[in-house]
Structures are given as C-alpha cells and as structure tokens.
Design a protein that fits this description.
Helix content of chain A: over 70%
Strand content of chain B: under 5%
Number of strands of chain B: 0
Radius of gyration of chain B: 24 Å
Radius of gyration of chain A: 20 Å
Largest interface: A-B, 40 and 29 residues
Largest sheet of chain A: none
Shape of chain A: globular
Strand content of chain A: under 5%
Order of helices and strands of chain A: HHHHHHH
Structural class of chain A: mainly alpha
Oligomer: heterodimer
C-alpha cells in the first residue's frame, strides 16, 4: 500500500508534462481572439476544469450506486475521492469564468442560468462534506452519502444544459456556429488544438489525482482501523 | 481593422489562480499522506507494545 505503483508514478510525471504543454498551447500557440483579447486564453483551462469537475460528480454518483448495491466500503472511499477532487476542479472553473467575465461582461458575477446552476452544484457538494461530518456511524454515513451523491448528480446535467435550455449570455462554444451570446466566439483550427489538448490533459490529470486521492482514502481507513484496535 | 482590447492582466490572473489553487490542493494531499503514514507507524508500534 505504501509503495506507489510504477504506473501511477508515470501518470504523475505525464500529468505534469501535459500540463506544461497545455499551458504553452493556450498561452503561445493559440492565436489571440480579437474581440476579447488575451483573457480569452483562460477559456481553455476554464472549460477543461469544468469538464473534469462534472465528470467527478457523475463518478461519485456511480460510486454511490455501487455502494448501495454492494455495501462495500471501498465504494465509499471512491465516492469521497471523486467529490473532493471535483469540488476543487469545479471551483477553479468558476473562478476562471469569473475572471473571464470581468472584461467580457463588465462584471465579476451575474445570476444568469449557467453561473447560478454552477454555484448551486458547488454548494451541493460542499454540503456533502458537512453531511458526512455530522454522522458518526461509518455505515450510516456511507449510506446517506451515497444517496446524497445520487440526488446531487442531478445538478450536473442541469448545469451542463442550462446554456442550451434557457436564455443566457453565457457563450455556447461547442455546437454553436453563431456567436450570439456576449463573449461568444468561433474557434479557429489552432484554437481547437489548444482546446482539445487542454480537455485531454485535464482528463489525464483527473485520473491521476483521483487515483492518488483513493490511495489516501484507503490509508485513512487503515489508520482508523488501527486506532480502534489500539483503543480496545 | 479592429484593435483587440488589452486584457492581458486578466489572463495572467486566471492562470495564476489556477496554479495557486491546484498547487495548494496537491500540497494538501501530500501533507495528509505524510501525516497518515506517520500516524500508522505510531499506531503499529503502540499495537506491538500492547501485545508484548
């Protein structure tokens, strides 16, 4: 358990290299967008972080189902890991979006559908940890958390679809040829390379951090078991 | 020909925010891992003493 698997070590290094390349592509390779200027380059990391954030929330829901079906505590560890890292990635996406919005919309924040649903999603999963901290019994805690992630997962498609279902100023970049929303734009081929590379990079980073966080959860459980054994 | 607005400071702010939040989280993972490993060693020694 203590020794890190070689493949995970390779994944750690690969993640760092890919992150450096993704930053280079976003900052130097992708051309500057003429209506927004350099701040548009934040968009590549913004979307990629939002993507892995949502991926993790869905993964937590799947782990929740697996726990409810099997009752195996390993799924509880996977679920907590998924929620924790997704909270971080989704927070980054919200912060980057806010920084982009200041020059594009002339405000740091506005209560339009995408921003509102994203903020609600983040708060739902923050409350997940409050719920866990409030329950002493490990089995009860795991069961309640699993049900909570299932309900919480509903907020993910709502957030994703918010800009497609409601009237909003948030740009729809994928699947939108006309840039009608304020701050919307069409991607040039070089922008697409930076964009899809960032998506790929953050997917690899997500897998790497997820795996590391699961290992931490397993170690945490072992320490808890040892504590109980010593106290007996 | 239109001139792009000067928004470089926001771009820098965005990337700095990403790297700061991400580094803080990764550091927290490393710190927690090291603390748990230390706790595990201490508890294993206590368990050994208890048995002896």
């Amino acid at each position: 358990m203590n020794k890190k698997p070689k493949i995970l070590l390779v994944l750690d290094i690969l993640s760092l290299v890919l992150l450096a390349v993704a930053a280079y592509l976003s900052l130097n390779f992708a051309p500057m967008e003429v209506t927004m200027g350099n701040v548009q380059k934040v968009f590549y990391f913004h979307v990629a972080n939002a993507w892995v954030g949502m991926l993790g929330f869905i993964a937590a829901g799947v782990a929740g189902i697996a726990y409810l079906r099997s009752g195996n505590s390993k799924w509880d560890i996977v679920e907590v890991a998924a929620v924790e890292i997704s909270l971080v990635f989704f927070l980054i996406a919200i912060l980057l979006g806010s920084i982009w919005a200041r020059p594009a919309w002339n405000t740091w924040w506005t209560w339009e559908p995408r921003l509102t649903t994203a903020a609600i999603t983040e708060m739902i999963y923050l409350a997940y940890f409050m719920l866990r901290n409030g329950i002493e019994d490990p089995n009860r805690r795991a069961r309640f958390s699993a049900v909570y992630t299932l309900i919480g997962a509903v907020s993910v498609p709502i957030t994703f679809l918010a800009i497609r279902l409601f009237r909003t100023i948030h740009p729809v970049v994928i699947g939108s040829e006309s840039a009608q929303a304020q701050g919307g734009f069409n991607m040039s081929p070089d922008m697409k390379i930076a964009f899809f590379f960032a998506l790929f990079t953050f997917t690899i980073i997500f897998i790497d951090v997820f795996w590391n966080r699961i290992r931490l959860g397993i170690l945490q459980n072992k320490v808890e078991e040892l504590k109980l054994k010593v106290m007996e | 020909m239109s001139i792009a607005p000067e928004t470089t400071n926001y771009m820098i702010g965005g990337f700095v925010t990403f790297f700061v939040v991400f580094t803080v989280y990764i550091t927290s993972l490393i710190v927690r891992w090291n603390n748990l490993k230390r706790d595990k060693l201490t508890l294993e020694e206590l368990d050994k003493d208890k048995k002896a």
